[in-house]
Design brief:
- By secondary structure, this protein is an alpha+beta fold.
- The protein folds into two domains: 3-173, PhyR, sigma-like (SL) domain (Butyryl-CoA Dehydrogenase, subunit A, domain 3, Up-down Bundle); 182-300, Nuclear Transport Factor 2, Chain: A, CATH 3.10.450.50.
- It has helices at residues 3-29, 32-47, 57-79, 108-118, 120-128, 131-142, 147-154, 158-173, 182-198, 201-207, 232-240, 243-246, 290-295; strands spanning 86-88, 94-96, 208-216, 227-230, 249-254, 257-262, 270-277, 280-287, 298-300.
- It has a seven-stranded mixed β-sheet with strand order 4-3-8-7-6-5-9, sandwiched between helices. It has a two-stranded antiparallel sheet with strand order 1-2.
- β6 (257-262) and β7 form a beta hairpin.
- α1 (3-29) packs antiparallel against α2, α3 (57-79) packs antiparallel against α6 and α6 crosses α8.
- Residues 81-105 have low confidence and may be disordered.
């Protein structure tokens, strides 16, 4: 087999695995651009390696991608203590500052679609795990990689990896039992998000109590003082102005109660919690200050 044919065959084999590798990398990193960078680096390493003795190329590539993601997550934790800096751009979408450590060129629409398909709440919880916990949970629980294989990647025993995945699983599920009225509240919160994403002003007003009060901390806008908005139509108008942000928002359990979490590129930046009177929202608390966000327990709804 000549060199050109061998290269073409290797490229073809890699393309067969590209989608799965990208899925692993995205769940590990929460960013399309970072995931694509990792997959590209995996191809470069494959093209420079002699894999003639590799029996399972998919497992070999998954190991490469996992280790690259692990290194990136560890570097991210040492580089960034605060949550991702995200503000609204001209179109209402997030503008990511240098603190996020993201590579450029990501398509916001693709980021939003992927976040929706994976689950914003899951991405938020994964971002709060240690790199080792995240690797163990993603590979085992989401992609059924055996603990023995993950142990080799982390240089730990299979039992230790099992414990990492177990701790991560508890964080994903949350420690607080949902309230008995959680399903009802979730339906209202989902309707709030759907109306905001769809720009349906009147549908949003119908979900709000006429005397609803919204509180937003200083980091949300930002402003010198916290913001207080009263009345259904005024609160709905403010929500309509955040339609772009809503693309990166999903329903989550926050301290055991259905809420909304905004996480552009998989990193929590804003949380909306609600109070209710029956099926009507009476209060909205918009949280963006890092200390307040860190104090919240976020789980998959």
């Amino acid at each position: 087999m000549n060199e050109r044919v061998a290269d073409d065959r290797l490229a073809g084999l890699f393309e067969e695995h590209r989608g799965g590798l990208r899925a692993v990398a995205y769940r590990m990193l929460g960013s399309v651009s970072e995931a694509d960078d990792v997959v590209q680096e995996a191809w470069l390493r494959l093209s420079r390696s002699d894999v003639s003795g590799v029996d399972n190329l998919g497992a070999w590539l998954t190991t490469v991608v996992a280790r690259l993601c692990l290194n990136m997550l560890r570097a991210r934790r040492t580089r960034r203590e605060d949550p991702l800096e995200a503000q609204s751009g001209p179109d209402g979408g997030p503008v990511v500052g240098p603190a996020g450590g993201l590579t450029g060129g990501a398509d916001p629409e693709e980021e939003a679609v992927l976040a929706d398909s994976v689950g914003v709440a899951l991405l938020v919880v994964l971002d709060r795990l240690s790199p080792a916990e995240r690797l163990a949970f993603v590979l085992h629980d989401l992609f059924a990689v055996p603990f023995e294989d993950i142990a080799v990647m982390l240089e730990r025993t299979p039992q230790a990896v099992r414990q990492l995945a177990s701790r991560a699983r508890r964080r994903v599920r949350g420690g607080d039992a949902p309230r008995p009225d959680a399903p009802q509240r979730r339906r209202v919160v989902e309707a709030f998000l759907a109306a905001t994403r769809g720009g349906d002003f009147e549908a949003l007003v119908k979900l709000l109590h006429p005397d609803v009060v919204l509180h937003a901390d200083r980091r949300v806008v930002p402003t010198p003082e916290p913001i207080v908005v009263r009345g259904a139509r005024r609160v709905a108008e403010g929500a309509m102005a955040a339609t772009g942000r809503a693309r990166f928002t999903g329903v989550a359990l926050v301290d055991g109660v259905p809420a909304l979490a905004m996480a552009p590129y998989g990193r929590l930046s804003v949380v909306l919690t609600f109070t209710f009177d029956g099926d009507l929202i009476t209060g909205v608390d918009v949280v963006a200050e890092p200390d307040r966000l860190r104090a919240l327990e976020v789980a998959v709804a």
